[in-house]
Amino acid sequence: MPMKKGARVRAVREKLEGSLEALANDQRWPSYIFETDGEVLDLRGDYAFVKFGAVPTPPSWFRQDQLVEVNSTAPVDA
Length: 78
Prior knowledge:
Blueprint: E1 8-11, H1 13-16, H2 20-24, H3 32-35, E2 38-44, E3 47-52, E4 60-63, E5 67-69
Antiparallel strand pairs: 1-2, 1-5, 2-3, 3-4
């Protein structure tokens, strides 16, 4: 099922490690992207723009296959 704006997601560590994005960035991924829910703000092609609300950081782009949707009715922390 395609991802939609507003979906709650978490990053999948196994899909980020060794990826092209990992090679182009600092590979010390922050734990909050794996442990807290983020919200999909925008979608473009294979990528999703995700805001993780657990910490005050800017949204980031992830390939959709590097994310998993989570069933959460709680709002993302502001």
